[in-house]
Design goal:
Layout lengths: L6 H9 L2 E8 L25 E4 L6 H12 L6 E7 L3 H14 L4 E17 L16 E16 L10 E2 L5 H4 L16 H9 L3 H9 L1
Parallel strand pairs: 2-3
Antiparallel strand pairs: 1-4, 3-5, 4-5, 4-6
Helix pairs in contact: 2-3
């Protein structure tokens, strides 16, 4: 006896006939903040001149870190924020961790929220069939999703350690783990230190004959 199809499988088959046209943030989204306060963003009291890096799924980590490192090298820039949502959260954490290794003494505060994203899907046109009648315009479908959003603040100035998500500065990698000098490898044909001196101290064939004659 065949098992009835699950609702998810039927919904997946229906979505195969649609393609995503655009994705936009729904108005009034961003609720359910963890450790966040009131305001338009997770950090309402940022220092003036703070840099905001928006990380996307297709962003290049090399390009993001090049701009972030150059910005934080300026004395006027005191803080930087990496933010990303959905699949970009992993790159957001990676950028923040690499920058913390490059620049010592950065205070960190992490905020986790949920954003409401509206995806607009459009139905795919069917394949050409003989004697096909003119069809109506493609139908559109709107889907509302709640995706996780991550924001990481790195500041040169000291922050309140009592606030949720705070992490103290980590020690510089050069001070904690210094690279050791590699030991030179001795070749197989090269004699050892005591081996060469022993060979030089051995008498030659002529010297042995002189000893015997005396």
């Amino acid at each position: 006896m065949a098992k009835p199809a699950s609702p998810r499988s039927g919904q997946r088959r229906r979505m195969e006939n649609f393609r995503k046209v655009r994705s936009e943030e729904a108005p009034g989204g961003g609720g359910g903040a963890e450790g966040g306060g009131p305001g338009s963003g997770p950090f309402a009291d940022l220092a003036p001149g703070a840099v905001h890096m928006r990380v996307k799924e297709g962003s290049k980590i090399r390009n993001l870190l090049a701009f972030a490192t150059a910005s934080m090298a300026q004395p006027a820039t005191r803080a930087i924020v990496f933010s990303g949502c959905g699949r970009a959260t992993t790159k957001t954490v990676t950028c923040a961790e690499i920058l913390k290794r490059r620049l010592a003494g950065l205070h960190q505060v992490t905020r986790l929220r949920y954003r409401s994203v509206r995806e607009v899907w459009q139905s795919l046109p069917p394949g050409p069939t003989p004697q096909q009648k003119p069809r109506e315009p493609a139908a559109s479908l709107s889907v509302l999703k709640n995706v996780p959003s991550l924001a990481i603040l790195l500041s040169k100035d000291a922050l309140d350690p009592r606030q949720p998500g705070y992490q103290p500065p980590s020690p510089h990698p050069d001070s904690s783990a210094q690279p050791t000098a590699p030991t030179p490898k001795r070749s197989l044909r090269e004699p050892a230190a005591g081996e060469g001196s022993a060979k030089r101290s051995q008498p030659g064939p002529g010297a042995a004959g002189e000893d015997q004659s005396t």
